[in-house]
Amino acid sequence: MAIVGLLYVGAVLFINGLLLIGRVDPKAAAPLNLFVGALQVVTPTYLIIAANGDPALIAAAAGIYLFGFTYLYVGIGLLANLDTTGVGWFSLFVAIVALGFSYVNFQAVENRPFGVIWLYWAFLWALFFVVLGLKREALTQYTGWVTIIQSWVTAAIPAMLIFTGRWTNPNETALALAIFGVVVFLALLPLARRRRAPEEVVPTPTPTVPAATS
């Protein structure tokens, strides 16, 4: 069930990445954030009830709430035109917790691909904190493109591979994800130095963050 949510997380990340680079209007992005946010709250609630007290299953489901609450926060913020500092500082909290979930996936459940994916998400949330919480708007374009790439690499593609039974070779997959992330996100760094011309400046929109699985 969590994998179904992961697929739609790919969709909302894609839309919010386009929002950050100025291709989607903030209010137009709000409904999808609310839809996926609601899904990411209902899903872990069901999984926890069905876990029958199993600590491992409960822990796996608990992380999904981080993302569900964030999507709802983002959707409401976009519709109400709220200041972005709230979701920005919440993103710092989630980025730190994501490191813990990465460790759990590496050590406790030995799911190395998702251990790497949690590191991707920790990096993305850290960017959201800098852009939205600290208002470093020079990083908006960079963060937008990182979000778009992660929508496919950490969500949509893994979900489809898992659905079709092709999510195999975990060690090789984890290594490929790690190398890809380092190379691509370093290659995008020039975007962090690029500023819009004055007539192109737009208010920093509120993005969202990925959903959890293990």
Automatic annotation (TrEMBL):
Signal peptide: none annotated. Its main location: membrane. One of its GO terms (cellular component) is plasma membrane. Pfam families: AmiS_UreI (PF02293). Keywords: Cell membrane, Membrane, Transmembrane, Transmembrane helix, Transport. It is found in: Cell membrane. It comes from the Bacteria. CDD domains: UreI_AmiS_like_2 (cd13429). Coiled coil: none annotated. The keyword Cell division does not apply. InterPro entries: AmiSUreI_transpt (IPR003211), AmiSUreI_transpt_sf (IPR038523). The chain crosses the membrane at residues 6-24, 31-51, 57-80, 87-104, 116-134, 146-167, 173-192. The keyword Membrane applies. It is a multi-pass membrane protein. Belongs to the AmiS/UreI family. This is Transporter.
